[in-house]
Amino acid sequence: MNKNGDQEILQLIQDPKTRDVGFRQLIQAYQKRVYHVIRRMVLIHEDADDITQNTFIKAHHHIDKFQGQSSLFTWLYRIATNESLTFLEKKKKRNFFSIDDHQEKMESYIDQPGNIDGDEIQRLLQKALLTLPDKQRLVFHLKYQEELTYEEMSEITGTTIGALKASYHHAVKKIEHSLTLE
Q1: Quick one: DSSP state of residue 68?
Q2: pTM of the predicted model, to two decimals?
Q3: Which of 14, 125, 134, 159 is least surrounded by CB atoms within 10 angstroms?
């Protein structure tokens, strides 16, 4: 969606008479993209659905704090990534997973037919991504899969460009190492 589309949605949301219509348009415009961002982080469809819903609920509650310094999608992306990271941390704690147990469980999910599209290389990449800390995986996803600039990534994550470049570099090195071991 372009800046004009964002402005139209925001105008609808700001008017109490058209607020619901504006939110429906916001969801319609961004739901699929937000879902895919989350799905890449948490892998499991049902979890991604729940987190997507939570993202839009949070957006609904906090839309008045949106200052328009970024696009609506960047703002939603920030909420979605924070919700995903929080979910992953809670899931690890709730299930008393060690990092290795959590990684093993997610790898077995990847190995199940139909859970991850693509060929063997895609499956191996997904497994390699699971070896990364959540925040490195997020940075790799934003840069490599979403093709965002470091400036956009900085806006979304609230992290300096230098730190993002370092995280991406470390993620790539870990993935390369992991793939050469396969």
Answers
A1: S
A2: 0.67
A3: 14
158's tokens: 């609230």
Q: In this predicted model, what pLDDT tens digit does every residue of 4-38 receive, in sequence order? A: 788 899 999 999 999 999 999 999 999 999 998 89
**Percentage helix, strand, coil for the chain under 3-state DSSP, each rounded to 5:** 80, 0, 20
User: What are the structural domains, with CATH classification, of the chain?
Assistant: 1-96 (1.10.1740.10), 119-181 (1.10.10.10)
C-alpha 55/C-alpha 65 separation (Å) is 15
Distance between CA atoms of residues 114 and 89, nearest Å: 26
Six-digit token pair at 34?
């937000």
Q: Kindly report the backbone phi and psi dihedral angles of residue 45, in degrees, each rounded to the nearest multiple of 5, phi listed first.
A: -55, -50
Residue with tokens 């790539």: 172
Cα–Cα separations (whole angstroms), residue 161 to 56, 124, 144, 154, 157: 27, 28, 15, 6, 10
Amino acid at 76: L
Q: Kindly state the greatest CA–CA separation across the chain.
A: 59
